[in-house]
């Protein structure tokens, strides 16, 4: 029952998140990837290894699922911003004793600079916004602050324009 409740709440949160994106009053083009209320199970699963920036999975859809299978497991994703825009990310964490965090980095010279993060305490979903610059590559990191599971996936939603 808790899994169904978590799925329902997750879909409601995604729908609400999507509605707030549309209500922002910005012009939307046909190229915009909108967050949708599609069931998380329809999104692709991360590909291991993706434990470093160099192994980051490219973002090809508006959502992806993954698992944090150990205390040291990190899941990296990347995308190139097609236009200057504010981007939004939403991380739905599986129900249980898991506390995952969400970070965004950009490469400046040879250094990774953190430009955004969401590190809510406990089993709280994470969300963040950041300004993306056209043509720049951004790296997204999902990692555990405490707890992990290799059986209950998280879902990471993207509103990348």
TrEMBL record:
Domain Peptidase C-terminal archaeal/bacterial: 73-144
Coiled coil: none
InterPro entries named in the record: Peptidase_C_arc/bac
Signal sequence range: 1-23
Keywords, alphabetical: Signal
UniProt cross-references to Gene3D superfamilies, sorted A to Z: 2.60.120.380
Name under which the protein is recorded: Peptidase domain-containing protein
Organism from which the protein derives: Brevibacillus borstelensis AK1
């Amino acid at each position: 029952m808790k899994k169904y409740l978590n799925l329902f709440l997750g879909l409601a949160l995604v729908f609400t998140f999507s509605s707030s994106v549309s209500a922002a009053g910005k012009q939307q083009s046909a190229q915009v990837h909108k967050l949708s209320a599609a069931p998380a199970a329809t999104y692709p699963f991360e590909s291991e290894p993706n434990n470093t920036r160099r192994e980051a999975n490219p973002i090809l859809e508006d959502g992806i699922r993954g698992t944090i299978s150990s205390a040291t497991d990190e899941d990296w994703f990347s995308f190139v911003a097609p236009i200057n825009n504010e981007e939004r990310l939403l991380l739905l964490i599986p129900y249980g004793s898991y506390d995952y965090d969400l970070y965004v980095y950009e490469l400046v010279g040879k250094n990774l600079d953190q430009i955004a993060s969401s590190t809510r305490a406990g089993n709280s979903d994470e969300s963040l916004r950041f300004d993306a610059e056209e043509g720049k590559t951004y790296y997204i990191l999902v990692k555990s602050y405490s707890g992990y599971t290799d059986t209950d996936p998280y879902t990471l939603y993207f509103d990348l324009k």
